[in-house]
Write a structure and sequence with these properties.
This protein has two domains: 172 residues, Rossmann fold (3-Layer(aba) Sandwich); 293 residues, Farnesyl Diphosphate Synthase (Orthogonal Bundle). It is α/β, with parallel strands linked by helices. The chain is built from 20 helices and six strands.
């Protein structure tokens, strides 16, 4: 007598992969053709199967880079090695499901949504019972919609960390294996995607306050603090949107593939809900408590950042100039919020210094690409590894020009009115020369984080240089 193993049926979205292909394709369509987003509602009005069909036909996925549940795939390979029939049954459209199945090479058959039927919940259960009979198959799922399928399965395998869902599956008396969904808690993933550590860049709004020596004015300090918060909320909003735009490219990046959206730790839907909410909070705060010139500066920052995320970052040289401009805009906004004039020296210094940092960011990416043998243009960028030396030359020159501007600032007549001993500021020049040179040396050795600000935050020497830099200016003001 030959014992025949029951077919093992596996769900796709949230089970085999950590993301949802409907959200992936809808997000991709909205970003690629924002002026045609209205079509999503028109397609949805025809039914979910019609929506999925249109999206599958108008977008594409890279099945090789999707965030898979590796532990589940390992188990499926073991089951298949024992001669078991493995079937994919998914509510995703067949065009997409077939691509995943072809990539994994695990499945003997694929059941999926098509133009006539959305294969989810009751529809999926009915299709499986009709094909294999009641209790004639085992099923691997991850969501409450799978409860009805588990009821008709011989064994219910669950991919989830939800104790309520696992208990609901257990009550039917057929609970099999339980796999973790490999996702952190929602709040943790959302906070990581918002990148609060990047808020340190927004400390630049305090520079005009310090440069004008208004740090003893409580109202100015409060306004600068509120400006910092508004910029932080706006920046987090843009980070979320940027990661939604870059999700496909990030999955091909050694480090960025661990970002919450790319890794499937955070639903794309949560991103589309969160970024406009954060942006609304930022502008509500600015409109209610801060001067109009600051709100306009914040609006310019958002528009320029949005343009960078959608297009400008793909254009060589324009991308680094935009990044430098975004840093400088923070200083402009800091001056606007406390109504102090901007000096030529401050704007020039910040533009050249931050242009150097932007070049370091690109240099680090190009360096890593060259070390990996990549000769084509970086994904989502306009540079190739051949540009490495040019980027280094331009970036180093920009940094040293920033130091030159600082040196010239010391000789300005207005500087003499602000500091008792302006000549002491000369000590800041070798400090800055050292820091810029060291940052480029570390980047040249391939040891730089691709974001130099993150590098500086974690680098003790950078903190020491910053402390000495601040001490020089305090001394120049206090010592006659």
């Amino acid at each position: 007598m030959t014992f025949t193993l029951r077919p093992l049926v596996v769900d796709l979205d949230g089970t085999l992969i950590k993301t949802d292909l409907l959200l992936e394709t809808a997000s991709q369509f909205a970003l690629a053709q924002p002026w045609q987003t209205y079509k999503l509602l028109a397609w949805l009005s025809q039914g979910k199967s019609a929506l999925k069909t249109h999206l599958a036909q108008n977008t594409s996925i890279d099945a090789t880079a999707l965030p898979y549940k590796e532990a589940l795939i390992t188990w499926l390979k073991q089951e298949k090695a024992q001669g078991r029939v493995i079937v994919m049954a998914t509510a995703s459209h067949r065009l997409l499901a077939d691509q995943v199945a072809n990539h994994l090479g695990l499945f003997d058959e694929v059941l999926a949504t098509d133009a006539s039927a959305n294969l989810k919940a009751d529809a999926k259960c009915a299709a499986l019972v009709a094909k294999y009979g009641e209790k004639g198959f085992d099923y691997v799922g991850n969501d409450w919609a799978d409860i009805v399928v588990w009821q008709s399965a011989a064994q219910a395998h669950v991919v989830s960390r939800s104790s309520r869902l696992i208990e609901a599956a257990r009550r039917h008396g057929n609970l099999g294996k339980v796999f973790s969904d490999d996702k952190p808690p929602l709040a943790q993933a959302l906070l990581k995607a918002m990148r609060p550590h990047q808020w340190v860049k927004n400390l630049l709004v305090f520079i005009p306050l310090l440069a004008a020596h208004r740090y003893d004015d409580a109202i100015s300090v409060l306004q600068a603090l509120l400006a910092f918060i508004a910029f932080g909320l706006t920046a987090s909003s843009v980070y979320l949107l940027n990661d939604l735009v870059d999700v496909a490219d990030d999955r091909h990046h050694a480090r960025k593939r661990q970002r919450p959206f790319a890794a499937g730790h955070l639903s794309l839907l949560h991103g589309w809900l969160a970024w406009p909410l954060l942006l609304a909070c930022a502008f509500t705060l600015a409109a209610a408590a801060l001067p109009l010139p600051f709100t306009l500066s914040l609006g310019a920052y958002f528009v320029l950042t949005l343009a960078y995320s959608l297009r400008l970052k793909q254009i060589p040289m324009v991308d680094v100039l935009t990044l430098a401009g975004l840093y400088t805009l923070r200083i402009i906004a800091g001056a606007a919020v406390i109504a102090v004039p901007l000096t030529f020296w401050l704007l020039s210094f910040s533009m050249f210094l931050f242009l150097s940092l932007a070049f370091i960011k690109r240099y680090s990416e190009l360096k890593a690409a060259r070390q990996n043998g990549q000769t084509k243009a970086l994904r989502g960028r306009g540079y190739t590894s051949q540009d490495l030396e040019l980027v280094a030359n331009l970036g180093g020159s920009a940094g040293y020009t920033g130091v030159l501007v600082l040196a010239l600032y010391i000789q300005d007549a207005h500087t003499a009115s602000l500091y008792a001993t302006p000549q002491a500021i000369w000590l800041a020049c070798p400090l800055l020369l050292f820091w810029i040179s060291r940052a480029w040396l570390i980047a040249h050795r391939g040891q730089m984080h691709d974001d130099p600000i993150v590098f500086a935050l974690k680098d003790r020497i950078s903190w020491a240089v910053a402390a000495l830099f601040a001490t020089v200016f305090v001394a120049a003001r206090a010592i006659a």
